């Protein structure tokens, strides 16, 4: 009996011991001081067709302290490899720490890779378990990815954060670009009725030799800067061309991605009025009506304020507001039309997702054209309906030079 | 076997866990692959068919009068024929337990702990299951009551925080490819978990109050089915049918996409917790059913001596059951339905026929 009691007491102790052994941590635990935390990754191809990977890692001692040293806040490592995965693993030969990708904010893709096809790069980024899907994808315009990711940026210590924040801010206030995440690109790629667009970034002052040096940010106006550019249109996974600023905004209007932007409307005589778009709602519907070609209807409803008046107009007159509404509608229509035209004629690529609209609204018609949608897209008619409502005119009731 | 009993409410909770467990990993992808954006309708259909199947199970449970599935077989068909039938059933439940264990192991190794060997994940997870089985059905029932609020909380959390990313257009076109893909896709959920619920017939006699139990089984499976419906719809609405098909674990991707006010991010592990909890209960029910069933098959007085040796077998079976993920996908897609149908539907039908005939004979004799 005594023996049994003893035994009963020993068993829990053994269990606790065993659990202690098992529960100390994961099999391959990695401590924070053994990791290099990547914030941005650049992917491109070189002339030999190998992948070039540029990884920007933060220097924690630089970011976290109050007494900065002379070392830069981020370092970047460049490596080439026959495949993405190989290159990523070969990074360990250059970096002192294993690179950790879960906190990555941005992937910059080079133009050469974009021309050859994004698929291999995207597949790896989506398949590997260490990447979260919340990072943005941007396309480097005109300059090598390597250079873009080695610029030290003013104001934001981490360049990747600077680019990400610029994308977010301009998406909300100007709408000429768009933050694209990997799943948006992939779902556009996978669906036969849509082609992806990706926002571009551009390097200003690439000639300045010290862009990758802290010297760069010791100027009031940093000589080398990374700026946002407009959208790049893809056909399948290959770069088809760049949209202009107006076309980008037109596309964003049509897809309902405009949160706010500014439009310049001509006054009746001379000068312009700046209209601030504060809210938009957009929808697309597809109609076949038995007639060919099919018709895509884009309808945009928008609410706006008068933001800036540089001419002589009587703003207290409802007719003026009516006139401005009409002009705003015309302007938005013009933007969308330019985007539709360039998509249909120059890129031959359905960046609007019109195919998906037809799939949704006219599934029977879609079945017939699904296989060669790009051809049908070119012939598609497009009707654009815009309704603008200007509601307020800011703090002043009239133009300030109006005598009244 | 034991004199342990559980309440109808605990039974209902076990049914809910059983329905969600592992199916939450397996169902959304394949159903969407066949039915595209109409997969929610397939699942709705499966729930309806499921209710009919559970009414059948309930009838068997009622007619067996306090006997488990295996005891009832022996009782009706005699020692030899009964044992032949019940051996099919036992193998099914035992293999299913190993497959469910492998599901969670595959998930852990591919998403959370890639360098940990599969065996260790399996052993660690299964040790808890063995402990629970050893302690008996009462403990299992009570722990289901403890964990249910957590699961509800986490599910609410998931639905609430991913709702801003919902786009209703993803449901369109409704029935764009006609009705037949939608109908055939409902097979997926009927085979897992609905027909797998035949394992619950091993627990059925241990539940008090027959009438409440029957009701609890139906309500539980409808609730569990609705959770699967909700999860699959969420996948389609947030990711779109294309990405739902492409992802091995679409729900996990939704968790990655949750972003509340810019600071509440990267909450995919919450979803992993739901999975582990539900799969734990499914596994423990299956394993309990197979050990108790095996003990009754061998006419043992106590099932406990079997817990450890059978458990070792399960772990090994779970490792060797399939060589790679692609094999498993095709196995689930092509074979599992017919297998589950023969064990989960035809076998119960045979038993039901036997039970009814026996009842008739008895009435005549009396």
List the helices and strands and how they pair.
The complex is a heterodimer of chains A (404) and B (366).
Chain A: H1 2-22, E1 35-45, E2 51-58, H2 60-64, E3 74-81, H3 84-90, E4 98-100, E5 106-109, H4 111-116, H5 119-127, E6 136-141, H6 145-148, H7 159-173, E7 180-181, H8 182-190, E8 197-204, E9 225-235, E10 238-242, H9 245-255, E11 261-266, E12 272-287, E13 295-309, H10 318-347, H11 354-361, H12 363-369, H13 373-379, E14 381-392
Parallel strand pairs in A: 1-4, 1-5, 5-6, 6-8, 13-14
Antiparallel strand pairs in A: 1-2, 2-3, 6-7, 8-9, 9-10, 11-12, 12-13
Chain B: H1 8-20, H2 23-26, H3 28-35, H4 39-64, H5 69-112, H6 118-135, H7 137-162, H8 180-194, H9 210-246, H10 250-257, E1 259-260, E2 264-265, H11 268-297, H12 304-320, H13 325-365
Antiparallel strand pairs in B: 1-2
Helix pairs in contact in B: 1-7, 1-9, 1-11, 3-4, 3-8, 3-9, 4-8, 4-9, 4-13, 5-6, 5-11, 5-12, 5-13, 6-11, 6-12, 7-11, 8-13, 9-10, 10-11, 11-12
């Amino acid at each position: 009996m005594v023996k049994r009691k003893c035994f009963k007491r020993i068993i829990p102790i053994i269990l606790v011991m065993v659990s202690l052994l098992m529960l100390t941590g994961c099999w391959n635990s990695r401590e924070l001081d053994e990791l290099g935390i990547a914030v941005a990754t650049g992917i491109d191809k070189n002339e030999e067709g190998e992948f070039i990977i540029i990884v920007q890692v933060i220097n924690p001692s630089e970011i976290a302290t109050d007494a900065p040293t002379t070392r830069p806040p981020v370092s970047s490592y460049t490596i080439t490899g026959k495949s993405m995965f190989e290159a990523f693993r070969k990074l360990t030969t250059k970096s002192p720490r294993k690179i950790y990708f879960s906190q990555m904010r941005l992937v910059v893709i080079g133009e050469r890779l974009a021309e050859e096809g994004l698929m291999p790069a995207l597949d790896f980024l989506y398949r590997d378990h260490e990447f979260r899907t919340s990072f943005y994808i941007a396309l480097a315009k005109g300059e090598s990815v390597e250079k873009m990711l080695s610029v030290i940026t003013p104001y934001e210590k981490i360049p990747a954060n600077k680019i990400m924040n610029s994308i977010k801010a301009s998406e909300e206030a100007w709408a000429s670009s768009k933050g694209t995440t990997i799943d948006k690109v992939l779902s556009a790629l996978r669906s036969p009725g849509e082609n992806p667009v990706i926002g571009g970034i551009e390097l200003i002052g690439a000639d300045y030799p010290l862009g990758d040096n802290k010297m760069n940010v010791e100027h009031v106006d940093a000589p080398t800067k990374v700026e946002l550019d407009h959208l790049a249109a893809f056909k399948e996974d290959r770069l088809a061309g760049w949209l202009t600023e107006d076309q980008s905004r037109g596309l964003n209007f049509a897809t309902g991605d405009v949160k706010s932007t500014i439009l310049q409307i001509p006054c009746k005589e001379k000068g312009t009025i700046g209209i601030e778009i504060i809210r938009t709602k957009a929808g697309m519907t597809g109609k076949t009506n038995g007639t060919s070609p099919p018709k895509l209807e884009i309808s945009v409803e928008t609410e706006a304020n008068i933001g800036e008046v540089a001419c002589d107009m009587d703003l207290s007159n409802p007719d003026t507001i009516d006139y401005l509404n009409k002009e705003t509608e015309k302007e938005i229509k013009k933007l969308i039309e330019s985007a539709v035209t360039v998509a249909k004629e120059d890129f031959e690529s359905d960046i609007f997702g019109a195919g998906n609209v037809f799939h949704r609204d006219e599934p029977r018609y879609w079945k017939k054209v699904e296989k060669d949608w790009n051809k049908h897209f070119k012939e598609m008619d497009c009707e654009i309906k815009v309704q603008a409502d200007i509601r307020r005119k800011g703090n002043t009731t009239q133009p300030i030079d109006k005598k009244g | 076997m034991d004199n342990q009993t559980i309440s109808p409410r605990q039974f209902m909770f076990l049914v809910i866990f059983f329905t969600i467990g592992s199916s939450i990993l397996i169902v959304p992808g394949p159903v969407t692959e066949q039915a595209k954006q109409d997969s929610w309708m397939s699942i709705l259909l499966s729930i309806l068919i499921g209710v009919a199947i559970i009414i059948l199970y309930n009838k068997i449970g009622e007619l067996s009068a306090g006997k488990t599935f295996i005891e009832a077989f022996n009782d009706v068909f005699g020692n030899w024929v009964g044992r032949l039938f019940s051996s099919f059933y036992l193998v099914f439940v035992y293999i299913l337990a190993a497959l469910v264990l492998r599901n969670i192991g595959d998930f852990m190794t591919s998403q959370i702990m890639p360098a940990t060997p599969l065996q260790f994940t399996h052993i660690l997870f299964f040790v808890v299951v063995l402990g629970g089985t050893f302690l008996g059905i009462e403990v299992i029932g009570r722990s289901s009551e403890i964990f249910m609020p957590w699961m509800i909380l986490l599910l609410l959390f998931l639905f609430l925080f991913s709702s801003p990313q919902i786009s209703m257009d993803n449901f369109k076109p409704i029935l764009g490819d006609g009705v037949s893909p939608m109908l055939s896709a409902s097979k997926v959920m009927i085979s897992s978990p609905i027909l797998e619920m035949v394992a619950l017939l091993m627990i059925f006699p241990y539940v008090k109050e027959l009438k409440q139990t029957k009701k609890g089984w139906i309500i539980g499976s409808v609730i569990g089915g609705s959770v699967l419906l909700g999860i699959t719809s969420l996948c389609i609405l947030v990711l779109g049918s294309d990405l739902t098909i492409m992802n091995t674990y679409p729900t996990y991707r939704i968790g990655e996409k949750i972003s509340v006010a810019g600071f509440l991010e990267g909450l995919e592990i919450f979803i992993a917790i739901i999975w582990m909890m539900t799969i734990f209960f499914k596994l423990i029910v299956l394993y309990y059913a197979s050990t108790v069933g095996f003990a009754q098959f061998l006419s043992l007085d106590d099932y406990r001596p079997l817990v450890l040796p059978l458990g070792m077998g399960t772990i090994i079976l779970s490792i060797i059951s399939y060589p790679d993920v692609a094999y498993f996908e095709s196995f689930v897609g092509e074979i599992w339905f017919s297998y589950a149908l023969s064990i989960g539907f035809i076998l119960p039908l045979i038993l039901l026929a036997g039970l009814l005939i026996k009842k008739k004979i008895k009435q005549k004799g009396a």
